[in-house]
Specification:
By secondary structure, the chain is an alpha+beta fold. Helices cover 65% and strands 7% of the residues. Helix 10 links the parallel strand 1 and strand 2. The chain starts with a helix and ends with a strand.
């Protein structure tokens, strides 16, 4: 299971929620009551209390993960703590046919390992349970005198871990489907937003053409005589419309006015936009506009080429000015 899948499954289970903390507190309270209530049934009270501390520490580790996931190192730490609790508790059990609730550590350790499995660390959870079986079996056939009464309790505990593992696997598949559904919905929303933006852009362009080009087209379609001044105005209008299509990053009321004024003086102005739609930060755009307007206002003849550069370059744009007298200069913005 990948880290995102583990985080998604844990998010569905709310393993880090306030409710999980309450369950943890109740779990520790029950373990405390059982440990204290069975102190007379074990060989010594101190191993039982040490085991209680180890189980509590492992439970805290498994319910206080880092960044929404249970790191492998922390899961290994949980397995080490639960194994240590088994090593401390099991030899402290009485050699008797029944130990009663003195075997509380078996259920406590299994529940902690169940949480490890819920975080998607199935291999480590079952490794921890295997170590619990090994510790119990070693005690059974050595200090326990061969009486398997404690070892016989482990199949029931393994059932809890099996059910939890199967549930976690099913939850992983559910979380993957939910993630795929969210990704599909996000893609649909993005496509819808792009379609709406394109429609809005087309409407704005149509409105602009209707306001600027339509009067000129109607005047031309009337087949009437028109003056040279009108022809020049229409040429500049065509250039202005072309600027909006191929240099959208350089479109503003101030720039349009300065460009039109320069063209009316006979300056050849070419505006290009190679930014691929990347937004220009406000401060850099202001510097670019000021530099371009300054050059347009100062130029009386010749040619000016302004180009917005692709993203990732050292500069935002370049302005190349070729004056009629042969002087040329380049401004990097």
């Amino acid at each position: 299971m990948t880290t995102p899948e583990r985080a998604a499954a844990a998010g569905i289970l709310r393993l880090t929620s306030a409710g999980a903390r309450v369950i943890l507190a109740l779990f520790l309270a029950v373990d405390l009551v059982l440990a204290i209530a069975t102190l007379d049934n074990v060989l010594s009270p101190w191993p039982a209390l040490v085991a209680l501390v180890l189980v509590a520490a492992s439970a805290l580790l498994v319910t206080w993960p880092r960044d929404g996931v249970l790191p492998r190192s922390r899961a290994i730490g949980v397995v080490a703590l639960t194994t240590a609790a088994a090593i401390v508790s099991t030899p402290n059990l009485p050699v008797a046919p029944v130990a009663g609730y003195a075997t509380w550590h078996l259920g406590a350790i299994t529940l902690v390992l169940l949480f490890v499995g819920m975080w998607g660390r199935f291999a480590l959870a079952w490794t921890g349970f295997g170590l619990l079986v090994v510790v119990t079996a070693v005690w059974t056939f050595t200090l326990g005198g061969g009486n398997p009464y404690v070892l016989a309790l482990l199949p029931n505990q393994s059932g809890t871990l099996v059910v939890g593992t199967l549930f976690a696997i099913g939850l992983r598949r559910t979380s993957r489907r939910i993630a795929e559904l969210h990704a599909r919905q996000a893609a649909i929303a993005a496509a819808d937003a792009a379609t709406r933006a394109a429609a809005t852009e087309r409407a704005e362009q149509a409105e602009l053409l209707n306001a600027t080009a339509r009067p000129a087209l109607e005047r031309i379609a009337a087949a009437e005589r028109y003056t040279d001044a009108e022809r020049e105005a229409w040429v500049r209008l065509e250039a202005s419309i072309r600027d909006r299509l191929r240099a959208s990053a350089l479109v503003s009321s101030e720039l349009t006015a300065a460009t039109d004024a320069a063209r009316s003086r006979g300056v050849d102005v070419t505006l290009l936009d190679d930014s691929a739609g990347a937004a220009i930060p406000g401060a850099e755009r202001s510097r670019l506009e000021r530099a371009l307007v300054r050059e347009l206002d100062a130029l009386r003849s010749g040619r000016l080429i302004a180009r917005v550069l692709p993203p990732g370059r050292d500069h935002v744009a370049t302005i190349v000015v070729d004056e009629e007298g042969g002087d040329s200069r380049r401004i990097d913005v």
